[in-house]
Amino acid sequence: MESTPPAPRYFHAILPWPVELSNLSPGTTAAELCTALASYGNITHSFLLVSKMANLGAIVHFSDHRTAAAAAADLDGTCADGFILQARLMSHKEQFTFSCHLSPPPPPRCKFGGG
């Protein structure tokens, strides 16, 4: 059964489709992921998720739903460098929520004295 993308709404139609990968081998780079996953389709960007509490993870953004869904389905449960990968297609809502948490803090404000 082939999954179909949700109906485009507003700007969601032009957003990339994120795939979350977890349990990556330590030392994996974003460039290596892009090279390894290029056979699925166009990757718009990727970044690593580094945590002291969990193994290395990544989010890879594909340009269309079909390639992202295929990558997530194929990669989930596969073994790479001795690690069993977990892969899943993220929703745009998750992506937005996640990116809000990654936003840099606002710059410090200067206090001006006056009277």
UniProtKB/TrEMBL annotation:
It comes from the Eukaryota. It comes from Puccinia graminis f. sp. tritici. InterPro entries: Nucleotide-bd_a/b_plait_sf, RBD_domain_sf, RRM_dom. This is RRM domain-containing protein. GO terms for molecular function: RNA binding. Residues 22-82 form the RRM domain. SUPFAM superfamilies: RNA-binding domain, RBD.
